[in-house]
Amino acid sequence: MRRKPNRAVAVGVVLAVVVLVAAIVLFVVVPRVVAAKIEAAASRRALTIAYGSAAYRFTRAEVRDATITPKTGKRVTLRAPLIDARIHGLSPTWILFPRLDATVSGGLDEVVAAIDPVRKADEALPPAERLPIDVQGGTFTWKEPFGDESSIVFGDMRASVRPAEALVTATLRKGRMTLPHLALDGLSVDVKRSTKAGERLDLRASLGGLAGEDGHARIDAHRVEGETTLDVDVEQFGLSNASPKLQGLDLSLSVVDATVHAERSAEGAVRSNGKLAITKLRLPPVKVGPVSVAVGGTVRVSWKGTPKKGAPGTMLIDDGKVEVVLGGRARVVKITGEIALGETGEGPYLVKIDWEAGPFPCAEIVGDVGGALAKGLAASTVSGTVRARGTVRGDLSEIDDLKKSVEILEACKLDVGKSLGGLLDGLPF
What we know:
- The structure is a single chain.
- 16% of the residues lie in helices and 52% in strands.
- By secondary structure, it is α+β, with helices and mostly antiparallel strands.
- The chain has a domain at 263-429.
- A six-stranded mixed β-barrel has the order 4-5-7-9-8-6. The protein has a two-stranded antiparallel sheet with strand order 17-18. Strands 23-26 form a two-stranded antiparallel ribbon.
- Strand 11 and strand 12 form a beta hairpin.
- The longest helix is centred in the N-terminal third of the chain and has 38 residues, at 7-44.
- The N and C termini lie far apart (140 Å).
């Protein structure tokens, strides 16, 4: 006699099948759908994303080991161990990065060119697709912002994007800036960009004094509807970490004070003025003919620049001078030329500088002639004047490749005959 199947068993089997199907949908199909949506969302923003795995958590979707880059190249790379997407249905509503490590490389113009298509693609999306984003921690590394051997690294990065408020903010702390001849710690930057009532960008940066020093450096920059202003305030800032390549130049005890103001109109007109002083500076002697000139330990620079007509982004140096101490007195080196920031203020940063020094009386400024000969020569045996001029040309982002020229127009002379007899009498032979 055939036995009827147990109804409870049948129901159990059906439930097991339902659970299995639900599990497949929940843990296999849905994550793939979510992952496809993430890839599509990235693509619509001119980005590519590679990741290790995706998972669905009812009200959240998680993507692990993600790497995000602009489609235009690899100048910018974002790496996130976890992307936490808050979702409604299968559509994301909020993106969280518990940690994001950002790396960019190249000059400012190259980085801007890499991310500009991403910004434009995002702004072209419907409002519902422009999601709020929070970066809760991470790092930021900029390789070669000013050419070879330069970098900017921040050990703490936090950021937020609020499309509904048209607002982007970023806070960068624990920063270190490395230049070819200088390394500076304690850099902090705050950035705020708003487009709700026109384009506005605010940037504030500060650099604390080095270990055991109280100095500071602050930058306050604003861009409103294409018009930019920049103010720099530096007070008693030490350069003890500096390691210049020029033999004889020592900045280990040097202290900097400076005030700088610069502005650029929406049409590209650039103007600037400022003062810079470096004290306790150890400079190598300068050779002028048969003698060397000892340069004092203080250098002061001042300038005033005005827009160059018909050349947006270019500033003429109308009143520039470098003041150095020679022979115990301040001597002025005149500076003229121009500095180009690019039509949009984003580079390339080109300089064409001409300078002229003197004439300075050699009897007032001559230093050590050198060796035993110096013992028999008085300052009165040095005659003539020193006059020189030179040029500096090139891109400021490639400091080591700047082209420099020096022309000695007048050099010191030695009247050896007047003191040669006394010198010979004093020699031990």
